[in-house]
Amino acid sequence: MNPYWEYVRAGYILVWVVLGAYSVSLTARRREASRGSGGPVPRGGAGG
Amino acid sequence: MRHAVMVGTGVVGLVLLALGHGLGLFWAPTDKMMGDVQRMMYAHVPTAWTALVAYLISFVACVGYLFFGDWTWDLVAEAAAEVGLVFNGLLLATGMIWGRPTWGVYWTWDPRLTTAGVLFLLYGGYLALRRFVDDPERRASLAAVVGILAFADAPIVYFSVRWWRGLHQIQSTPKTVDPEMVLCLRLSAFAMLFLMVHFVLRRVQIGRARLDRELAPPPAAAAGWGGPR
Prior knowledge:
Chain A is mainly alpha-helical. Chain A has one helix and no strands.
């Protein structure tokens, strides 16, 4: 097998994993943003 | 309607990406000079185009916010910058993976690589700035100015391969590339374009929900209590 295929495979896997992970993070952030509408909160969370 | 567009762009993007990548990996002809490693092109080049288009959208939205002052422009600017940063990161990472077997190094201070790296840092700074400013109006105005300045690097990235001699090759045209390669490249490029729009729409939703909470009156004011006298 052509040794360069390892690089090609790594590149394609990276693209799919990163785009998939970003999609999952958007779903989680959407849920978090729409949860609890108890008035204004400081940016970056309610801690501080 | 908006939900249908969001779902539609995601589904079409995924199908086209699977098709473009699948054909690029197993159907497109092998490059005579670079061999199979050239197949990185179908993953690498579309990330560059998509990142630049996302940054262009962010730039237009920044100008739009300064002119019209509508929150939607600010939300779109933020969303497109973040999505552009994701594709910019993929551009750098896939470029490094392609560079190692081709040039012998993962990274070199070639003008194209350097300017693309600077673009990544500029938009990383733009998003960091947004997290440091609490007042929504001040944040939107400052971010719009920084977003416009950051975009100045985008055309430099594009033309860097023509303006300066470096390791990175200049842009190919369909006339110099095998038609089967062009097909795979276009499929992957449209796939990422659809996915970019899909992600921007979803990110705008998140920004709007956060902004609504920030702009909402405090609970005491909302309940009609005027506070201590």
